[in-house]
Amino acid sequence: MNRRIGSTRPEMLETTFPSRLGNPRVMVAVLLMMAFGRTVNAGTTTEVSTLLALRSAVQSSDQTIIMKPGRYTLTELPNGSRDIPCSGSNNTIDLSDVYVAVPVGTTRRGYITISGDNNVFRGGVFEDIYPSGLDDVTDFSAYNQNRSTLAKGLNGSAVLSVSGDDNTVAGTKLTVRGSFPYGYGSIYGIGADNVYGLDKRCGILLKGKRNTVDGCEVQQRAFGHGIYMQSPADESVIKNSLVEGVMRPSKDLYLETNPRDLPARSDYKIPPKDDRSRGRRGRRERGQGRSAIGSKNRDHGRDLGTPIPTDTMIPLSEDGIRVYSKGGSVTVENCTVKKMRGGIRLYLASHATVIHSTAVDCGHTNFNMPSRGKIIGSIGNFAYAPLSDFRLSKSRQEIELTILPSPDAVGSHNLADVQGSNHSIVLHRSEGPLDTNLRPIVIHDDNSTIRNETEYPVILQPTASGNSVVSFGPVTDLGNNNTITRIQQPNADRE
């Protein structure tokens, strides 16, 4: 049976009976269901042509829901109902060639939720837009002073969240805009330890089991994560997807001289955490956009912390692909993360495998993994942060990475800080001439096997012992009981 919803009056149902077997979009939906192994009643096809009709349809189960291609705006839904709550199960929701604009400030929460099970949410371009027509933020002073239609987040929630099990989000693109503050990364704190108030907006959140993100794109233009997993998520799969943020030179913060600008209010210093922890009290006392703690510290000349550096790049968003504590296991395959705070940041996962993925130009680290994590055939650089920082010294990792040269690297970081023990690490070099920016690979701990096919030097710290290092680049051994073998330049015939 076919149902057409929303063609004229979205609150009415019109039943029609002509065959849909020749409709190519129905055939695509059926093939998609077969490809993902979903058990969906393909005999029930629901066509919708308004957001109100879509909102109603996705709350029922066992359907192929097809939305009419076109451009829509979330404000077509009534205030208080501006979301797409996919609480039904066993649905294929086909949003091919559908574009939805979401004016910043018109909804206070994430607007796509998949709480049902065994759904395929396919296609759709969802773009947060500024009502003023602003696209890229360049005047961060003016931006952060407009808290209603510019610097307006979603109270930390994600645009698209999946709390049900066995769902697939495929081929969906999100452009995420609107947060406060924006333009300073995490300098002024994140979570409860923020100074000036925080209103984040994230991309995709997975909180269910066995959910997949496939062929999606997140253009992150707000402070928040791109794709992230929280408890009770488990067995998550992220593949064929792109997350991209924006970097900003740290020296540009010194150009913000308006007394209301956050860099000016903080005396161009990074607040220490003990000041950040009082941020909530300051926000309760805030007047005219100024927190009490920010005003007090400035007026009394109190030292807020270390000066904002002038020689680094600041990531304006959080992590590209991130797992939180108790966020379960994850597989990341054929994904790319660019210009986020952390690239593929999985060190808190119960288990993680990264296959044929790329993380470049990120601000704090490009990769990190949990104990026994695996990186296979992947690529990274060290332009603004280490290739990997081995967060919390997680051990027994198996890593195979190709290092991209970073001739214009800024900041004082090493290429990598290998912490934790019993790793098996292979570092390949990319094609092309030898790099001249020879930042070191620093080994801190014990009993790892490291094959360095690159020109970058290896330094074993005094704390390093029992490691086996095979390296083309020079090796400095300050530790004890390490075995060092030098090799010729690999891939010389490709230079």
UniProtKB/TrEMBL annotation:
SUPFAM superfamilies: Pectin lyase-like. It comes from Rubripirellula lacrimiformis. This is Right handed beta helix domain-containing protein. Residues 478-495 have a biased composition (Polar residues). Residues 254-312, 472-495 are annotated as: Disordered. Gene3D superfamilies: Single-stranded right-handed beta-helix, Pectin lyase-like. Residues 254-277 have a biased composition (Basic and acidic residues).
